[in-house]
């Protein structure tokens, strides 16, 4: 235990303690009354409320959209399943700044929706919620779908044989078994969205601020270290409580069920309803996950083709020479200046 404890102490506990001490300790005296002063501020309470509210809304929306996908990946066997499973994981491993930029290219000023229909969602809470669903879709599909694929379907079939309807059998047999997995996935999504920074910073603009964003603003713009320290303590306590609850749900999930091999539960879709469900999940993945990435890739070419990518291999001297050449051509009255350099 010595190595992980030492790593935790040096790279986590010490920085947090130093931040709190710098904000709340002066002349060797702790000013803990500052905690009540900060919490009494209306703008701080608004930040706390929005942080919690948007995290709850993001979690509920993610579960609503991703649970059908969890069922499809758990119970259906169809061509391209493994490729599609890999595709839905891509958004989760992207930096949050890239996710925010992708949605700006889709729903922001001059984005795809703005160009086609004049529809803009940037600086609205809807852009934040959709970006959070984009980012956390794989969390629900992997966590819930992984357990769902190992539940023995014969238990639900036995309930049907005893006279239960399809919905009653699912509600009384499958749903209680899935409960710990759904709770674990919901807690992880809530944790990720509660501590959201890049997505809110880019898509929310100055209108919306979470705890992460407010700590950054108080530290780098206002230089109010005491307020930043109090908000850091609040976030630290909240994250610790969420992780403890998540650990409890994971232990419950691991000890309460008898599972079967996942390869024995998946089958080809049967009937029009199941094919429609599969098509709906594929369409959701295409629109919600692939479209923002496709727009981001398309915008990366701009009007210079591969020019911006070639610029990545140029050194600073070449870029500076290219910029000087373009400015000189413009100053000399060239009627048709050379095209913009990707530098």
TrEMBL record:
Domain ABC transmembrane type-1 positions: 48-244
Pfam families named among the record's database cross-references: BPD_transp_1 (PF00528)
Membrane topology: Multi-pass membrane protein
Primary location: membrane
Origin superkingdom: Bacteria
Signal peptide range: none
GO cellular component: plasma membrane
Compartments it resides in: Cell membrane
UniProtKB keywords: Cell membrane, Membrane, Transmembrane, Transmembrane helix, Transport
GO biological process: transmembrane transport
Family indicated by similarity: Belongs to the binding-protein-dependent transport system permease family.
Protein name, entry field: ABC transmembrane type-1 domain-containing protein
Xref: CDD domains: TM_PBP2
InterPro entries: MetI-like, MetI-like_sf
Membrane-crossing residue ranges in chain numbering: 53-74, 86-106, 126-148, 169-202, 222-248, 275-297
